TrEMBL record:
InterPro entries cross-referenced by the UniProt entry: FN3_dom, FN3_sf, Ig-like_fold
Keyword Signal: yes
Native source organism of the sequence: Psychroflexus gondwanensis ACAM 44
Protein name: Fibronectin type-III domain-containing protein
Keyword Signal carried by entry: yes
Length: 229
């Protein structure tokens, strides 16, 4: 009887030790993730945001992939949009974003272990917004089909109205208009002379801190580009 009790005690001890060892080992599998981007050092424009972070693993399994995942919905995962970085310390440039939009970001890391406690881990969620055109001023360069050019300062007011003024002749060619943004596509309508029905209709695309496109003027096409002041 005493032998059976001793064997049972040894067996339970082995199970207990194995369980503890398994729990301790599982804890080592989760990568450590650090977010390094804050509102103070954020680099963002109208269509891109830079997110920095670092990952490390104290376990026996190496990190096989890492980067940033993002979405317009909270708690993004690697099933959403993501970058894949080669170094455990990185800065990901997230492009093709939509202006004036809030995005949610999480840094992720995946290791090579197949146990349920391992796999992909995520850092704390962060949210940042791309820039808005509201209240900004831009330097427009207009190129006509005959090669002539003109420069104008355009202010995009938050209420959807605009002010056009040429810096070389302040007040001389001041014109008002309206603007709207659909995704990153700008539509800017400017009336230069309502009596003669002279108007420009600009359409173009935002990219980074610039935009460009075409315009029509009675109804000749012209090209234009713009940079933000």
């Amino acid at each position: 009887m005493r032998k059976h009790i001793f064997k049972a005690f040894v067996l339970l001890s082995i199970i207990s030790i194995s369980s503890c060892e398994s729990d301790d080992t599982d804890e080592l599998f989760a990568p450590t993730i650090t977010n390094e981007t804050t509102s103070g050092n954020l680099e963002a424009n109208y269509t891109s945001i830079k997110i920095s972070g670092s990952v490390s693993s104290e376990g026996v399994n190496e990190i096989t992939s890492r980067g940033v995942c993002w979405s317009t919905s909270e708690n993004p995962t690697i099933d959403d949009d993501k970058t894949t970085e080669s170094s455990n310390t990185f800065t990901s440039t997230i492009t093709d974003l939509v202006a004036n939009t809030t995005y949610y970001f999480r840094i992720y890391a995946t290791n090579s272990d197949n146990k349920s406690t391992a796999g992909t881990s995520y850092g704390a969620q962060q949210s940042f917004s791309t820039s808005s055109l509201d209240g900004t001023m831009w330097d427009f360069l207009i190129t006509y089909d005959n090669g002539q050019t003109a420069n104008g300062d355009v202010t995009f007011n938050p209420d959807g109205t605009t002010l056009y003024d040429e810096p070389s002749s302040p007040g001389t060619y001041t014109s008002y208009g309206t603007w709207s943004l659909n995704g990153n596509i700008l539509t800017y309508d400017i009336d230069t002379d309502t009596t003669n029905n002279d108007y420009y209709l600009f359409t173009g695309t935002l990219l980074g801190n610039t935009m460009s496109g075409t315009a029509t003027f009675n109804p000749n096409p012209i090209n234009w580009s713009a940079t933000e002041y």
